[in-house]
UniProtKB/TrEMBL annotation:
It is found in: Cell membrane. It holds the Pfam family YitT_membrane. GO terms for cellular component: plasma membrane. This is YitT family protein. It comes from Phocaeicola vulgatus (Bacteroides vulgatus). It is a multi-pass membrane protein. It comes from the Bacteria. Keywords: Cell membrane, Membrane, Transmembrane, Transmembrane helix. The chain crosses the membrane at residues 16-39, 59-79, 86-104.
Length: 128
């Protein structure tokens, strides 16, 4: 087994910091600009939003369930080492979607605005 160097450890820590910052931006964009105006995007978060709009089932749980099923297949096919960062991102985004919906809904009164330019937070989050 190969011993990790300080540079390798710092690279991994940096990766997780960037993943977390991107997820914060993405989930804040969802909670503040997309969910209140019933706007959706693609992917599992978009499917979760459609389920939320139709049934009221929390977006973070449908996102988590869909991704758990997909990750089960990915781990079986590609192995667990491949999916460590993805699993971290799924758990973190599930938590952050819940947290920012709570914060935005309870503490921030959103003015009447159009969604023009608001997906900037989503795009920034996806670029990390």
């Amino acid at each position: 087994m190969h011993k990790l160097t300080k540079a390798e450890i710092m690279r991994e820590v940096k990766d997780y910091i960037y993943i977390t910052l991107g997820l914060i931006s993405y989930s804040l964009g969802w909670a503040a600009f997309l969910l209140p105006y019933q706007i959706t995007t693609g992917g599992t978060t978009g499917i979760g939003a459609i389920i939320y709009y139709a049934t009221g089932f929390p977006i973070q749980w449908s996102y988590f369930i869909i991704n758990a099923v997909l990750m089960t297949f990915a781990i079986r096919i590609l192995g667990p080492k491949f999916s460590i960062k993805t699993t971290y991102a799924i758990f973190t985004l599930t938590f952050l979607l819940w947290l920012f919906q709570l914060v935005v809904n309870n503490y921030v009164e959103a003015p009447d605005m159009t969604p023009d330019g608001k997906p900037l937070l989503l795009g920034t989050g996806q670029d990390f």
